[in-house]
């Protein structure tokens, strides 16, 4: 065979070259995608507004005027709710929902029952026992932390006695784990349980 007239068996046309380049580009893109998918995610700075309990408090106060003292108190209140919930091993959002339902987070709220005052509206034996607990911890029951701690302690006691969330709320309200789901207490239980759930997902 005359080697001067030999031609390669396979010759790429312009279309073939373009096709090959396109395939190589796609393979590169897939490789990068897979590498990123299996590697550790990049560290992303958390926005200043993403503050868990504090953000939930801000959501609860969304209809309140900005000059209301509850706004200025929100960061400190959030800190105490988180720390006291951790101390007593309870759900911070149930604690927040309880405080909001009882007093709308007003520090000096006076309730309907005799001696019912403050964030958590404790009274009677519950208040007396809570003050004993605070005395052991050397906390002022009139301070913001003291008021949060009282309700956190009572919720922990209710949790120990009752277990299930509806019963816990019922005991906080009435002193008994038992309640009628269709009655007035049942309505309050449903509201607080639903509110706590909403607060958990406000992020």
Structure description:
- By secondary structure, the chain is mainly alpha-helical.
- It has one domain (53-200): Lysozyme (Orthogonal Bundle).
- Helices cover 62% and strands 0% of the residues.
- It contains eight helices and no strands.
- The N and C termini lie far apart (79 Å).
What's this model, at a glance?
This protein has eight helices and no strands.
CATH class: Mainly Alpha
Separation of the first and last Cα atoms: 79 Å
- Quaternary state reads single chain
Q: Assign an overall shape.
A: elongated
Helix content: 55-70%
Strand content: under 5%
| Rg (CA only) | 31 Å
Features:
203 residues; mainly alpha; Lysozyme; 8 helices; 62% helix; elongated
What's the SSE blueprint?
Layout: H1 14-38, H2 53-60, H3 69-88, H4 92-103, H5 124-137, H6 144-162, H7 165-174, H8 184-200
Helix pairs in contact: 2-3, 2-4, 3-6, 4-8, 5-6, 6-7, 7-8
């Amino acid at each position: 065979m005359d080697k001067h007239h030999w031609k390669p068996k396979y010759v790429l046309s312009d279309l073939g070259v373009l096709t090959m380049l396109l395939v190589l580009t796609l393979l590169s893109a897939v490789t990068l995608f897979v590498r990123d998918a299996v590697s550790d995610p990049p560290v992303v700075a958390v926005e200043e507004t993403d503050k868990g309990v504090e953000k939930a408090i801000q959501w609860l106060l969304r209809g309140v005027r900005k000059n209301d003292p509850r706004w200025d108190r929100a960061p400190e209140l959030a800190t105490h709710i988180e720390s006291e919930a951790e101390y007593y091993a309870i759900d911070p959002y149930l604690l927040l929902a309880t405080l909001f339902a009882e007093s709308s987070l007003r520090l000096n709220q006076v309730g309907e029952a005799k001696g019912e005052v403050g964030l958590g509206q404790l009274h009677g034996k519950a208040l007396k026992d809570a003050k004993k607990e605070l005395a052991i911890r050397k906390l002022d029951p009139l301070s913001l932390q003291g008021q949060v701690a009282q309700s956190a302690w009572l919720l922990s006691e209710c949790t120990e006695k009752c277990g299930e969330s509806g019963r816990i709320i019922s005991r906080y309200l009435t002193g008994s784990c038992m309640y009628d789901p269709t009655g007035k207490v049942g309505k309050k239980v449903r509201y607080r349980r639903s509110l706590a759930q909403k607060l958990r997902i406000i992020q």
